Inverse folding.
């Protein structure tokens, strides 16, 4: 128990130092990442996930109406879990956070999160994960939110691979469960003092769920999309 507690404490300190180092920017400690949702979204587009994540965590704490911030936080954490510059001791932690936040955003109805979950689970490749991939792919295909804009974030090749690797029973189970899907609104979390500047500048930018915010190009292709522009943008 003591060893586990020490490991968790060390991991927590390592995370703080790692993200603080990322936030110092490429030009040194006097450089700070932009504040607020628009600034964080630009950082994501630039692939600067370590800078964006602390800001997005804060904005997502506001709960319902800030699904895009929760999605981008999950996307950023998952990207950091695969990044060679992320210390090995933190990669599992980033991976868990990434999936947790994507699941929260997906369950809240955010389509980009649903598409990314389908691709992320498909990449794991186990039967259980493929069933989850099929589940989220089915939910995404039933989500009308993006069809109005003619967007399709789910890679057709990945979707075909999911179908090819699952038997009929697995597909039927996943699709049947997706038919029972009901939106779970994001809960509002307690705001911490360091979040104050990000929340003040981020409230008006992300509180509409991102529907009026068109984003194009920039950054690395998000795992759950990209044919529609930057991650999560409409």
């Amino acid at each position: 128990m003591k060893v586990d507690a020490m490991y968790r404490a060390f991991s927590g300190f390592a995370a703080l130092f790692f993200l603080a180092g990322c936030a110092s920017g490429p030009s040194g400690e006097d450089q700070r990442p932009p504040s607020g949702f628009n600034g964080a979204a630009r950082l994501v587009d630039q692939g600067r996930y370590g800078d964006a994540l602390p800001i997005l965590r804060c904005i997502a704490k506001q709960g319902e109406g800030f699904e895009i911030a929760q999605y981008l936080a999950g996307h950023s954490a998952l990207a950091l879990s695969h990044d060679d510059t992320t210390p090995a001791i933190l990669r599992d932690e980033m991976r868990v956070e990434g999936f947790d936040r994507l699941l929260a955003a997906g369950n809240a109805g955010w389509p980009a999160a649903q598409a990314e979950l389908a691709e992320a689970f498909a990449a794991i490749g186990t039967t259980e994960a493929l069933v989850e991939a099929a589940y989220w792919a089915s939910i995404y295909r039933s989500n009308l939110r993006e069809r109005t804009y003619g967007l399709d974030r789910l890679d057709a090749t990945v979707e075909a691979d999911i179908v090819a690797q699952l038997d009929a029973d697995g597909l039927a189970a996943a699709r049947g469960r997706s038919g029972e899907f009901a939106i779970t609104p994001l809960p509002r979390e307690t705001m911490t003092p360091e979040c104050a500047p990000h929340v003040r500048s981020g409230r008006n930018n992300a509180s509409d769920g991102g529907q009026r915010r068109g984003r194009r190009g920039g950054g690395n292709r998000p795992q759950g999309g990209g044919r529609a522009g930057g991650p999560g943008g409409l």
